[in-house]
């Protein structure tokens, strides 16, 4: 008797989990995965999906938010199971790995040529791999130093006017020292240490490039040895570690170091703009990252949308993509997360990114060659994982050469294990 | 062991034990054999390249990987520190509570409360307790008890404090469980033994060493075994509190395994690590059984 | 040691330990009732435990930010199924091993004991691969089925049943009752403590399940609470008050259940193989 109950209830569970498959045939149900990012961003996306669903009757979109921390692992797991959604959001540099694994459908013929031309060059470039276009973002990212203008003035330091005259390493050290001397706990710089994972690569690999180093040799993407652990890269990480050892960095456990006024500088992305602007008003300044010798360098690339091979209805997904890329929708998202709008029309209409507007630095960085895309290779997941580990060791005061040697060796081992990531069809 | 009832109806027995046996076979034995097999390959999640036989290469690699060796070492340190500390603490609490006076139930409940906290929640709350700076609760507490001579630390990012911080959370969460089991063991000790000892003029201390401890022996062995095995499975707190850092100071075998298999998609490498984990647990179980048997022969 | 001071000494010790044990809980409770900004600022002194100006905003936020009820129901359902089905399946096997004579018994019981020391963690990776291949990812089933059969539970039932007086069953057999009927009508009513113990042990070990659901689930429709708190923790903006409120809500129902059944548990432990 108990046994039948058990079997019955198990059958019930299995039945429940299968239910979604039985939908009416003329209604296309699209599964969409997005990362659980900033609250405002999530809310806008939810509303956009709701709008899309109510605008037409043939397509219903089901949106699932996946935590950012384990996003790639989730995608991989679903791929093994053959359960990728129709439309997948992912962090830009993971594109090359996903293409190599054969998960993505090219967009060249699906997305209209007009719309493709509308996109920012940085987004076009990031979405292309081996001659095909695979993913499109509705915004690009911006990374810079948010500053409390009044604190800088009090300390008597010069404020850079743009990416071409960013503070040098020495100037930045002087700025930090000057700020620290007037700060009760001496902690004046917020590096968003409360984040984890991809943030470390996104935010701090530009330092390598600014010093003349890099994550990997970009000629053939076959080796990190001699690049990631080059003297230039070591010098960049030394500068970073120096800020830690001098006690300039706030650990930002509450994610309020900058808005509560504890620090005068915050190394952060576009997504903090609205919160910071609200807290500081006109006292907020946006500055380029320091220049370690080869000019200021910054991050680029953001979360993008791709259509998976798993999708039975790519045409329907394209309609959703086109909807999300309409100027109005792009602007709604940009207004919520402060990101650089992805289309030229939207940028022209943006209240934040035009000439003389507060976030103009981000557009200048993207268009003036100051931003560096993360390595366009299927090895990226391992590159970023290795660099993150090295960053953590370095921030905690570990030996820099050691940490970078270890990371480079791990990356090279992975590339060898995958036979250099040959293209497989 | 007593003779079971004579019943030769094989079918009934098979019917009764089949669900459990099939479950154990499908979900424990087969995956384990699968893990052993995978560990000799180069399987990577999602890779379009063909699968290759690697022999012992994965094992050679993980043992030449300083992070994995450190992880094993951390697990060992964790066991060597936490198991005795937690057991002694639980025993002390159980002894204190093993008498009838007002409030014992309250205290027992209190010490048991952390047990119902999922480890992931424990980890999140303790991240806050270990907050750096003089305002952090742990820093403030240490400042108080050291009469102001404590310099605030960032525990979870300090190579000397990250692992101890995790240990503390484990002890906080796990002691209550051990205590309840030891308490049950204490209450099963026949009262006549103590009465006889009291008549012979044995003091409290003597009673503890000559009656309580020997009577608790099996309970203690059980408790130590379970805590040891749990210690080798340490993962949740590491994942949430320190991510294994700084420089592997708090990494564990399970953390390295999950990192390899998921963050880096190296399933075969992860499988090799889990095989090592199994061997270690096997060794410990075997050692502990031997120790237990020897003691039995002695007493 | 004088007798007069003995009890006060014990109280003092207990109080001291009690304070250490309860302070994280007090901190969590108090923090969940204050505005986010004050949680960390006030963590360094007595105000950490005192929510001046109580507000329920954090609790409201939790409900607004995540579907808490859904996670709770998921957890309750998954654990209920594991415990319920596990009790039946494992006790039947334990009984067959303890009381029936059948071919292969010794060998199979030896295998059960061997399987007992394989931790879930040691098989998580291949098990994950297996369930992914059969398409069980992201379901309730994948969080329940692998955990029903449990070697340790079988072992606990075995040790308990083997200690029961055989006269119980002999009477039933003389009346002509079959094995299964004997089991359900005679053994079950006499084995409440071991059922209580196994139920609670299973529940405790599964309630906090984190690693496995992290690997096999992705949508919140099937995710359990422990994942929710970790996700919530990493979901910007970081609001400690909300996180603590989430924690309180997550642990409160279980705490109440345990306060009610604590006595059962202690009694059960005292009657099973655990205590030696």
From TrEMBL, chain B:
GO terms for biological process: transmembrane transport. The keyword RNA-binding does not apply. CDD domains: TM_PBP2 (cd06261). It is a multi-pass membrane protein. Residues 72-288 form the ABC transmembrane type-1 domain. The chain crosses the membrane at residues 12-40, 76-97, 109-131, 160-184, 216-235, 267-287. Its main location: membrane. GO terms for cellular component: plasma membrane. It comes from the Bacteria. Belongs to the binding-protein-dependent transport system permease family. PANTHER family: ABC TRANSPORTER PERMEASE PROTEIN, INNER MEMBRANE ABC TRANSPORTER PERMEASE PROTEIN YCJO. This is Sugar ABC transporter permease. It comes from Candidatus Thiodiazotropha lotti.
